[in-house]
Structure formats: structure tokens, C-alpha cells
Design goal:
Blueprint: E1 9-14, E2 17-21, E3 26-27, E4 33-34, E5 38-42, E6 48-54, E7 62-65, E8 68-69, H1 76-86, E9 92-98, H2 108-123, H3 130-140, H4 144-147, E10 152-155, E11 163-166, E12 174-179, H5 190-200, H6 204-223, H7 227-246, H8 257-271, E13 277-279, E14 286-291, H9 295-305, E15 312-314, E16 321-322
Parallel strand pairs: 7-9
Antiparallel strand pairs: 1-6, 1-16, 2-5, 3-4, 5-10, 6-9, 7-8, 10-11, 12-14, 12-15, 13-14
Bound molecules: (3R)-3-hydroxy-3-methyl-5-(phosphonooxy)pentanoic acid (PMV).
The site of (3R)-3-hydroxy-3-methyl-5-(phosphonooxy)pentanoic acid has 15 residues, from helix 2 and helix 5.
Length: about 325
């Protein structure tokens, strides 16, 4: 026990990890061990901020996200592991907020768990390098294993941790236009949806096999900063991921009409020679990878379909950091 810690609080900030090739499905034998390899970019400008302090003696964890108390059991596996490593049994008071919609398929769990893992680890006096935080953040939410790093990351199938592929300044012209088709929380969590896909989709095994086959080409396209080649692979990855979900019993359908409109618009833009390559996650939002020079055009075109929305524009961002 470190008595001086009890009045301390630590704040950490992290950006969401957007998968270019997707993690969908878990292997047996551990917590959030991915069945498929993923590569991702950490986004700048979109932020989860977590402030962590010790709870009053004798009380358990209290977690408040965007002003709402969260079920403590969602956080327990990661927080218990942190406590175990530090041999410190104290509870935490955690206040977390996002400057973008929560639980709506914008990977807020990746940035949220990355920020909480970092702040709690520092409060406990544990090491806080990104590679040390990655396996801890993973216990909270798989994609958080990537979000602790800035820039571009790789998370191999079955791996306890993600690792950095390229630093934040590797591809300065890359932009991600985030279209928030619907800001409401998603109908089914990624955790439940992954499990339902694994259990009941006849296409699940094909998805896992094929995702592995995309990896090498994806790593190469990214290393060459070849948006067209990467875009083709990104589309295969997310379309096949959703294919496996649609075949689940009950079918899992995160898309909304607006999602499809954004997809069709990207197709049309590509037909006109514009590099606009979309991807989607466990929610209706559409993220469009493009180059800085095409952002204005993409935003203008989106206005026709989404007149009342202002899409976010993000660039590759830094890894988890402390603000105190
Ligand atoms: O880490 P989770 O449980 O939020 O799952 C992330 C799943 C996807 O966003 C759909 C894909 C990914 O690799 O981030």
C-alpha cells in the first residue's frame, strides 16, 4: 500500500483504433484472443479521457462513462488483473468521457479501455509503456490492445498484445472521414455479436481462414502507402466480416439505410478516380479513408446524402498519453 496514492488521481487520453483489416471472433483459451489478425490506425482528434483515483476504503469500483454509471463487471477482468499485478486490492473511481458518440461503432471501447488501463496502471505504480499496457487493455476490449499505440498497428491472430507497425507520421496525407450515420448506441455489443457469429454462422470458419490470407498483402499495401491496394483489401475484410454476421442465427445487422448510401457514394467517387475507401465496424457508422487533397470533395458529396451532418475528419493520431 502506498498511502500517498490515495489522494492522487491520474488522467490518460487515447484515440480509437480503426481496423483496416478486421478482428472479428475470439479464440478459446484466453480473454479476447483474436481469431483473425488485424491491422489498424489510431485516430487523432477523437478522444477518450479517463480519470482514475482509488475508491474510498472498503468500497468497490465505480465507473462513470459520459455521466452514466457503468456495470462494474464489464471492467472487472481488466481491473482485477491490474490489481493482481500490483498486489493492491483497492477499488477505483473511474470517470471517463468521449468527445465522440459512445458505443455506436466508433471504437469508443478501444480508446476507453486503453485510457483506463493506462491511468489505473500508473496510479498503481505499474509500468506504462504502450507494449506493457497492450495485453492489459486487451482484457477490457480486444481492440484496445491496438489503441495504446499511435500510428499503425498489427495484432496477430491469437496474440496477447498488438505491436506498432508504423509511427504516427508515417502517412501524413491519410485522412479518415467519419460519417456518423446514427449516433444511438448499437443494438448488440461487439462481444455478443462476435460470439453469436462464431456459434451460429455457417460462414464463420471461412471468414477466419480468409482473414488470415488478406494479412500479408495488407501489410505490404500499408508499407507502400498504396491507398488503392489497401482499399481493395479493406473492403474485402469488412464486407466478409459482415457476411459472416448476416449469416448468423439470428442475423446481425448493424447497417442502416444511411450506411448503404455512404457506401454507394464511395463506389461512385472511385468510379470518378477519387480514392475514397470505406470501412465499417460494429455499428452503422461509415469511415472513409482518403487523401488530404480529396477531403473537401468527399465532404461536399456527402452533404447531398447527409445535409444535417458534419462528418469528423481525423488523421493518424498518437498513442495513449497522460495529461497530468
Ligand atoms: O474490441 P471490440 O470488442 O470493440 O471489437 C472490435 C471489433 C471491430 O471494431 C468490428 C473490428 C476491429 O478490429 O476493431
Amino acid at each position: 500500500m502506498k498511502p500517498e496514492s490515495s489522494t492522487r488521481e491520474i488522467t490518460a487520453v487515447a484515440g480509437p483504433s480503426l481496423a483496416l483489416l478486421k478482428y472479428w471472433g475470439k479464440q478459446d483459451g484466453g480473454v479476447n484472443l483474436p481469431a483473425t489478425p488485424s491491422i489498424a490506425v489510431t485516430l487523432g482528434g477523437l478522444e477518450s479521457r479517463a480519470r482514475v483515483a482509488f475508491a474510498p476504503e472498503g468500497t468497490g469500483d465505480l465507473i462513470v462513462l459520459d455521466g452514466r454509471e457503468q456495470p462494474a463487471h464489464h471492467f472487472a477482468p481488466m481491473l482485477n488483473e491490474l490489481r493482481h499485478l500490483a498486489r493492491d486490492e483497492r477499488g477505483f473511481v473511474i470517470e471517463s468521457s468521449n468527445n465522440f458518440p459512445t458505443a455506436a461503432g466508433l471504437a469508443s471501447s478501444s480508446s476507453g479501455f486503453a485510457a483506463v488501463a493506462a491511468a489505473a496502471a500508473r496510479l498503481l505504480g505499474l509500468p506504462t509503456k504502450a507494449e506493457q499496457l497492450s495485453p492489459l487493455a486487451r482484457i477490457g476490449s480486444g481492440s484496445a490492445a491496438r489503441a495504446v499505440f499511435g500510428g499503425f498497428t498489427l495484432w496477430p491472430a491469437g496474440a496477447l498484445s498488438a505491436s506498432p507497425l508504423h509511427p504516427v507520421d508515417f502517412w501524413p496525407e491519410l485522412r479518415v472521414v467519419v460519417v456518423t450515420v446514427s449516433a444511438g448506441a448499437k443494438s448488440i455489443s461487439s462481444r455478443a455479436a462476435m460470439e453469436a457469429t462464431r456459434r451460429s454462422s455457417p460462414y464463420y470458419e471461412a471468414w477466419v481462414r480468409d482473414a488470415g490470407a488478406l494479412l500479408e498483402d495488407g501489410i505490404e499495401a500499408l508499407a507502400n502507402r498504396d491507398l488503392e491496394k489497401l482499399g481493395v483489401l479493406m473492403r474485402r475484410s469488412y464486407m466478409r466480416m459482415f457476411g459472416s454476421m448476416l449469416a448468423a442465427d439470428e442475423p446481425i445487422l448493424y447497417w442502416r439505410a444511411g450506411s448503404l448510401n455512404a457506401l454507394l457514394l464511395c463506389e461512385e467517387l472511385r468510379g470518378r478516380g477519387v480514392q475514397a475507401w470505406e470501412t465499417m465496424d460494429a455499428g452503422p457508422q461509415v469511415k472513409i479513408l482518403t487523401e488530404e487533397s480529396s477531403v473537401e470533395l468527399v465532404l461536399d458529396e456527402l452533404k447531398a446524402y447527409f445535409p444535417d451532418k458534419t462528418p469528423l475528419v481525423a488523421a493518424p493520431g498518437p498513442g495513449v498519453r497522460f495529461v497530468d
